[in-house]
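Appendix B.2, paired examples.
Example (i):
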Amino acid sequence: MKGISHALIGSALATAACRQLGLDAGPAVVAVSVLGGLLPDIDEEHSLINKYVPLHCKKAVYAAIASVLIYHAISKGQPALLVPAGISALIFFSGHRGFTHSIAAVMAFSMPLVGSEALFTAFLASYLLHLLCDMVNTKGLQLLWPLPHRFRLPIGFSGRSIPGMLIEGIAVLLSTLLAVRMLH
């Protein structure tokens, strides 16, 4: 599925869900839900979210970030930096639809938002919708990473096939219509 589709589906439904729950659905919620819809694909070199990462080899950027954070965690006595360092290292080492498409990543990436119910809900809903949409792909997801088993829905299509593109278009349309209905 294309990044723009993940962003639209996630932001439309997550923002509408926050509104239905009586939570703030302002610009910050929309921004966080777009991020939640795109973040799982940070492990893919040519993803929409990596389009804005400088350099040609995106994975090297995550390895460098992990190295710098580990150095500062040890030399400056800031063990809290080991968490983002570990996440950066996992992005570097795991393949597409590996760690970032797992329950472990959902928990790791959403925990910093626990203090804000609206932001946490929007991010979590959007991230989980990304994973659900990707489960239609024939390759499946490593939801229980680091275990190698891949999960997918019984109906599976390649994202570049005619049925896959049709399902993607229908999902974007339905999520937009549902969100509009929920907002009124």
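Example (ii):
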Amino acid sequence: MAGRCGDQGCLRERHWVVEGCFGAFSYTRQVNAFDRSVRAAVFEHLVAGWPGPTPGDIAERTGHPTEAVAESFQRLAAEHRLVLTPEGDRVMMAHPFSGVPTDYRSEIGDRRWWANCGWDAFAILALLGDGEVRARSEEGIESTWTIRNGVVRPDGLVHFVVPARRFWDDIGFT
């Protein structure tokens, strides 16, 4: 739950602490218009089916200077709004999309998107429409779920190895 003045946080101070099943996060600033435009361009890039963008890709898309986009990437990553590759030169995750190949894929017709996990693969289809989720386990077992009119078939269970409150300890592994 979000804090109120006098306990966990204060909106007037632009500082909120959110606690719950995902652990505690502290948000100390509102995203400025420039960073919002960069993040929106990242999502447009990923929805179009391209791999994780570089600052140059987003600069080309938006007309913003590459250096300013790179600085925006760093700010957005520091606040868990994006995840960059270990080299810091490309977007690896903009939840629910993955900018790099994974074992989880969402498909609508001939369009495909990589997802960070099974949960994110379903989230992509919740955003974009009915289709299929495909996953491959570490043992190489392939699974497919079909979503039509918001209904998932077949039924199944999902097992999360990492508790949700620990996801950001190592979001790449989670």
